[in-house]
Design goal:
By secondary structure, the chain is of the alpha/beta class. It has two domains: 2-171, Rossmann fold, CATH 3.40.50; 174-363, Dehydroquinate synthase-like - alpha domain (Dehydroquinate synthase-like, alpha domain). Helices cover 46% and strands 17% of the residues. It is built from 14 helices and eleven strands. The protein has helices at 25-29, 44-49, 51-57, 77-89, 104-116, 130-136, 174-191, 193-208, 211-231, 247-256, 265-282, 288-300, 316-323, 353-363; strands spanning 2-6, 13-17, 37-43, 62-68, 97-102, 122-127, 141-146, 149-156, 161-164, 336-339, 345-348. The strands form three sheets. It has a seven-stranded mixed β-sheet. The protein has a two-stranded antiparallel sheet with strand order 7-8. Strand 5 (97-102), helix 5 and strand 6 (122-127) form a beta-alpha-beta unit. Helix 8 (193-208) crosses helix 9. The protein binds nicotinamide-adenine-dinucleotide and glycine (GLY). The site of glycine has 5 residues, from loops. Nicotinamide-adenine-dinucleotide (NAD) is lined by residues 43, 45-46, 49-50, 70, 72, 75, 102-106, 108, 128-129, 131-132, 135-136, 139, 141, 151, 168, 171-172, 176, 265.
Length: 364
């Protein structure tokens, strides 16, 4: 069993990673189930694929499931209202822990519901997508989407426990596995070139379903994220901002494709990272060879690395306009993540958005 602790003083919590953990969930969750009952929120896909297994693993605990529609549109005011009403009807108290079983959509929604219910109650993350296992279930960012944009309404609210069973990925569609893999590669690109080398060697096995490769990649990624969150929980010092590598370009691509299945979040991040490296090379900051290596690895992993592959047919000015709605805007300037090479990402606050637009035009 891998155990990684997120060190946040009184709000510290463990992340447990092991194949088959779901089948033994009782051991870890019985002490958190008030009156022997657990409310588990899942979307329809995960409820079908993993809930029966979790319920069996919970033994004599009573499971009260709440099943929601799948997809990004579930992170909405309407579903949040429905969910909080249901939780209140079930008599949820502050001392209870609501369980989020699913991908980043369910994790973000349930985490936000927990942050506001009775002015804050507990929750447990049981992430079942690769993206959620290596990124969204750790660190306490919770949110829903609003008319003005994605993740614009939310709170920092840390879970009490994260349980990761890599075998849940066996039922995750291959495209979703590839999309989540982009966030794995991200940790290597930020500050860990040896891990990028590991991805280069073992990424193919991971995508093909190799259990050891999956567990290693998840544990390594979670350890990296836990360190960052402990150092900069609320993204105030710039350390946590590094986790947004590829996200500014990626966000523009997602906005242009309507936050739809045309381009999944991880696919947008993959293309965004390839663009961030090529833009860094365009500015003379990063060797072309490193930008080429990044794109080659992502493309070999079945991820988009060009605007065309991301199904985006827009000019630079249009894409930059999407970036202006980014919640990371600070006094009219957009902090940008650039790289001096693989594993040498840094936050630049003086990027000229006209130059970004010209670069994107050169990519079309
Ligand atoms: P998701 O939750 O929609 O899951 C992707 C799809 O896979 C869904 O259809 C889901 O039903 C299905 N699925 C999940 N696990 C499965 C399994 N084991 N078997 C079968 N099907 C399964 O999307 P996601 O990619 O997990 O997460 C994306 C969301 O995460 C976005 O809303 C994004 O904003 C958010 N996010 C949050 C953070 C954070 O720090 N909080 C970080 C990154 C992304
Ligand atoms: N996914 C970026 C963060 O958690 O900060």
């Amino acid at each position: 069993m891998n155990r990684i602790d997120v060190g946040l003083g009184a709000r510290s919590y463990p992340i447990l990673i092991e194949a088959g953990l779901l089948d033994r969930a009782h051991v870890h969750l019985a002490p958190l189930a008030r009156g022997g009952r657990l409310v588990v929120v899942a979307d329809e896909n995960v409820a079908m694929a993993q809930l029966p297994r979790l319920a069996a693993g919970l033994g004599n605990l009573t499971v009260t499931p709440i099943v929601l529609p799948p997809g990004e549109s579930t992170k909405s005011w309407a579903v949040l209202e429905q969910l909080t009403d249901q939780l209140l009807e079930l008599g949820i108290e502050r001392g209870d822990r609501i369980m989020a079983l699913g991908g980043g959509v369910i994790g973000d929604l349930v985490g936000f519901a927990a942050s506001i219910l009775k002015r804050g109650c507990g929750f447990v993350q049981v992430p079942t997508s690769l993206l959620a296992q290596v990124d969204s279930s750790v660190g306490g960012k919770t949110a829903i989407n609003s008319r003005a944009g994605k993740n614009l309404v939310g709170a920092f609210h840390q879970p009490d426990l994260v349980l990761i069973d890599p075998t849940t990925l066996d039922t995750l569609p291959a495209r979703e596995v590839r999309s989540g893999y982009a966030e794995v590669v991200k940790y290597g690109l930020i500050d860990d070139p040896a891990f990028f080398d590991w991805c280069d060697t073992h990424g193919g096995s991971l995508l093909a379903g190799d259990a050891d490769a999956r567990t290693h990649a998840i544990a390594h990624s979670v350890a990296a994220k836990a360190r960052v969150v402990a150092a900069d929980e609320r993204e105030t010092t710039g350390t946590r901002a590094l986790l947004n590598l590829g996200h500014t370009f990626g966000h523009a691509l997602e906005a242009e494709t309507g936050f739809s299945d045309t381009l999944l979040h991880g696919e947008a991040v993959a293309c965004g990272m390839a663009l961030a490296f090529r833009f860094s090379a365009y500015l003379g900051l990063c060797p072309d060879e490193d930008a080429g290596r990044v794109a080659y690895h992502l493309a070999r992993s079945g991820l988009p690395t060009t605007l065309g592959e991301a199904h985006v047919d827009a000019d630079g000015a249009t894409l930059v306009a999407h970036m202006m709605h980014d919640k990371k805007m600070e006094s009219g300037r957009l902090p940008f993540l650039l790289a001096r090479g693989i594993g040498q990402t840094f936050l630049a606050k003086d990027v000229d958005l006209k130059q970004v637009a010209a670069f994107l035009d050169s990519e079309a």
